[in-house]
Amino acid sequence: MCGIVGYVGEKQAAPILLDGLSKLEYRGYDSAGIAVFDGEKINMTKAKGRLKVLEELTHNGATMPGALGIGHTRWATHGEPSDVNAHPHLNRAETIAVVHNGIIENYLKLKKKLTGKGYEFISDTDTEVIAHLLDYYYDGNPLRAITKVMHRMEGSYALGIIFRDHPDELYAVRKDSPLIVGSTDGGCIIASDVPAVLKYTRDVYFIENEEIVRMKSDSMEFFNVDEEPIEKEATHIEWDVDAAEKGGYEHFMLKEMYEQPKAIEDTFSPRIKGNDIVIEELGMSDEEIRAVRKIMIVACGSAYHAGVTGKYVLEGMARIPVEVDLASEFRYRDPILDEGTLVIVISQSGETADSLAALRESRARGAKVLGIVNVVGSSIAREADNVMYTWAGPEIAVATTKAYSCQLIALYLLALKFSKIRGKITETELERYIEDLKRIPDQVELLLNNKNKIQKFANRYVAAKDVFFIGRGIDYAISLEGSLKLKEISYIHSEAYAAGELKHGTISLIEEGTLVTAVLTQEELYKKMISNIVEVRTRGAFVLAVTNEGNDEINRAADYVVYIPETNRFFTNSLAIIPLQLFGYYIAVGRGCDVDKPRNLAKSVTVE
Ligand code: AGP
Fold this sequence. Notes:
Structural class: alpha/beta
Number of helices: 20
Shape: globular
Low-confidence stretches: none
Oligomer: single chain
Bound molecules: 2-deoxy-2-amino glucitol-6-phosphate
Largest sheet: 8 strands, antiparallel
Number of strands: 27
Radius of gyration: 25 Å
């Protein structure tokens, strides 16, 4: 996600802004910029690339004198990474500058209205709309302009704003994106996160939704959206910088697991309009959707596992034949594709070499390619015919969690869209699916907050040598991901098997004390799964079962049971994965492994 900073005080702003941005680099970004008021005008420098580019362009801030400024590291959501799309953004008169972290969901509607009033846009971002909207409402009173803009925006935002004719004032406002403010010696500072301010102060104010701050070098005033003054208490931060970058979590992986509820909501909410699924970026007409004869999902690792879930959901709901293949296999097997095949390439990084090669191979054979990608402007995002972004935000830990969960959501949305248009589900059924979808963030949060049971269980298996994951149907898909999560961060050997496959060889490996994790969320397969559980237990296995609340008969079959809340049969993977992520995480922590950077692994495998 983006990072914002701001400063007003007696010192030069630019070096403080650059230093603050450097402390936010861990959040992931693709461009950066600062704007500083020099006593007469607002100067701005911004560029695609690392912060180093900005430091060189400004000679570490020396070319941008002034004691009032704002800065930004951009994680692209709307508009590719580029100089012009980088923040800050100015109004045309260059009297207002703004930096933004978040997503303005109704920016296209606001952009259209402003264009109709003669405003011209130079970037593809949602943030530029804010600069022009502030200009539109500004009549000399910054606070009034800000509150008017707040009433018009939908979505999430943390804003830093400066007004040329209020040269000693820095404004900040927040809704759903984090924002903190603090006072330093002879000034005030704002930032997206604690690491950026720790050098100056450990006493910070966490801004709540729809609160506005007006700062001067020696004062800080807080207002609500009705422009009424409010009182706030400062919080003393005990964290060190390293802990602060992880938001107080021990690892980025754990932090990102806890970001899943918001990431999931950010992925589906812009695409649910009333009782309809709207995926504008799909770039396919209803006729083209009806004309799809086959879907080919291609990916690697966890993205491939999401694709296996996608197969069960798309086939089960939309009744479209779906094939899923590992990109490294697909690219060399002379795949049979034609114009009736829709190829979906799933990739968090958008730079995985095998997945990119598979995309190129598909296009060369005349198939239409849809990317499901997390990194905006990445190679796969740019080369696919169309791209559906997962709004998970930057994922720092090598082991994916929130991006994987968002890939599942993207596949559910596609399945619902295709099912409705191809007449496979009714309006009422769609309404029910949408209700189930909207409940997932809270259900995920509930599972995350009930982590103690799985944490205790994991601590008993830190010395395990072999762990098996078994499931049938969609539960086989989640077993694949649960197994990868465990082995890639704990280095314990693990395998996932279609439970019906056990007797065809694998069961010979089961011996006294072998841990078998059985996932059974599909009611019509409970009985089959229970007999598989009995099979392995009679051979000495210890069985951890992950199943739906209410499935009490499992208590007699398994040794240890973790329940997931009720949802429809197609969405259970989004819930079952949470205890499996926690299981792998706590075993890896118990084994003292480098959870965020496991040995031999890279976050993005950009080579074959
Ligand atoms: C997942 O935890 C792994 N880090 C790995 O399997 C990953 O999913 C795979 O390399 C694909 O990466 P991508 O999604 O960026 O293409």
